[in-house]
């Protein structure tokens, strides 16, 4: 249990905004409410409506069947030819080697950004609008890594945009941080079409880019947000609920860096009840930063 007496006015205000965004109107209720039972009752109420839609009369049962008007199919010569466009690159071992070469050749984050923007060996780049690269303070030694760009990130060209980005800003403020005071980036620099998961080949191609970002930034602590980011670095297939909340070590460029995983802000918008878990993770991250003297007072 967190006591309000242990929080500064700024932290308390950020925490209240955090709960308000979750839809919390009352901190305490006189009687316990079983939310699971409410959810099951809602599902049961929807079943009769769904069944009635499935029991619509067939064409033979309708009193006035409607005749479908058909038009003659065009001949093969009259059919328009399919539109041809640029064929995307095929991920393979050669593309991975090329990604490693250009990543290792970069001697600064700005050089790495230029190299990634010029790289054409990954399918994802051909369907994305923007290349999402690290932003914020590269000298902070604090790094936050998300999973993959969202549609808002792709439109804005920056990580953690839109509503999830607004929530993310409040999460940082609750522990005395801001997006301008840490280095933000994503595991994958391009948004997968339809927000699908990146394929293993695409992950292999993008791995040298994110690892080089870490090597150049030299963070002393990393916060991973989202299931994909946690699995990518921890090498496990558990869900974020099984991977979050525990400090682990990840090895990048002959350096071992402490990292902790938590839920992505988008996950919290979808399931606000999990904000209490994210808050505990943020407090653990804050404690680690304090022990490393990385928080600026």
From TrEMBL:
<feature type="domain" description="Uracil-DNA glycosylase-like">
    <location>
        <begin position="133"/>
        <end position="283"/>
    </location>
</feature>
<feature type="region of interest" description="Disordered">
    <location>
        <begin position="46"/>
        <end position="91"/>
    </location>
</feature>
<keyword id="KW-0411">Iron-sulfur</keyword>
<keyword id="KW-0479">Metal-binding</keyword>
<keyword id="KW-0234">DNA repair</keyword>
<protein>
    <recommendedName>
        <fullName>Type-4 uracil-DNA glycosylase</fullName>
        <ecNumber>3.2.2.27</ecNumber>
    </recommendedName>
</protein>
<dbReference type="InterPro" id="IPR036895">
    <property type="entry name" value="Uracil-DNA_glycosylase-like_sf"/>
</dbReference>
<dbReference type="Pfam" id="PF03167">
    <property type="entry name" value="UDG"/>
</dbReference>
<keyword id="KW-0378">Hydrolase</keyword>
<keyword id="KW-0004">4Fe-4S</keyword>
<dbReference type="InterPro" id="IPR051536">
    <property type="entry name" value="UDG_Type-4/5"/>
</dbReference>
<keyword id="KW-0227">DNA damage</keyword>
<dbReference type="InterPro" id="IPR005122">
    <property type="entry name" value="Uracil-DNA_glycosylase-like"/>
</dbReference>
<keyword id="KW-0408">Iron</keyword>
<dbReference type="InterPro" id="IPR005273">
    <property type="entry name" value="Ura-DNA_glyco_family4"/>
</dbReference>
<comment type="similarity">
    <text>Belongs to the uracil-DNA glycosylase (UDG) superfamily. Type 4 (UDGa) family.</text>
</comment>
<feature type="compositionally biased region" description="Low complexity">
    <location>
        <begin position="71"/>
        <end position="82"/>
    </location>
</feature>
């Amino acid at each position: 249990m967190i006591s309000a007496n242990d929080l500064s006015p700024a932290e308390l205000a950020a925490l209240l905004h955090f709960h308000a965004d979750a839809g919390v109107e009352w901190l305490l209720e006189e009687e316990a409410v079983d939310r699971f039972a409410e959810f099951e009752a809602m599902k049961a109420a929807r079943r009769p409506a769904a069944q009635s839609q499935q029991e619509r009369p067939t064409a033979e049962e309708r009193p006035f069947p409607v005749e479908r008007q058909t038009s003659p199919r065009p001949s093969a010569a009259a059919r328009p030819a399919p539109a041809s466009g640029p064929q995307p690159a095929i991920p393979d071992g050669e593309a991975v080697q090329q990604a490693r070469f250009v990543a290792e050749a970069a001697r600064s984050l700005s050089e790495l950004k230029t190299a990634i923007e010029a790289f054409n060996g990954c399918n994802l780049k051909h369907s994305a609008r923007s290349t999402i690269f690290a932003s914020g303070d590269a000298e902070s030694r604090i790094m936050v890594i998300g999973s993959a760009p969202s549609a808002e990130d792709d439109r804005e060209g920056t990580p953690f945009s839109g509503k999830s980005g607004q929530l993310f800003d409040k999460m940082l403020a609750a522990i005395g941080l801001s997006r301008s005071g840490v280095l933000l980036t994503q595991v994958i620099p391009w948004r997968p079409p339809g927000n699908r998961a990146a394929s293993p080949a695409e992950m292999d191609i993008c791995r040298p880019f994110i690892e080089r970002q870490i090597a150049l930034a030299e963070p002393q602590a990393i916060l991973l947000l989202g299931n994909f980011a946690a699995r990518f670095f921890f090498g496990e297939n558990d869900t974020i609920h099984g991977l979050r909340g525990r400090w682990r070590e990840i090895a990048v460029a002959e350096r071992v860096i402490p990292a902790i995983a938590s839920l992505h802000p988008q996950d919290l918008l979808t399931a606000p009840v999990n904000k209490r878990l994210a808050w505990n993770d943020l407090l653990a991250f804050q404690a680690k930063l304090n022990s490393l003297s990385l928080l600026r007072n």
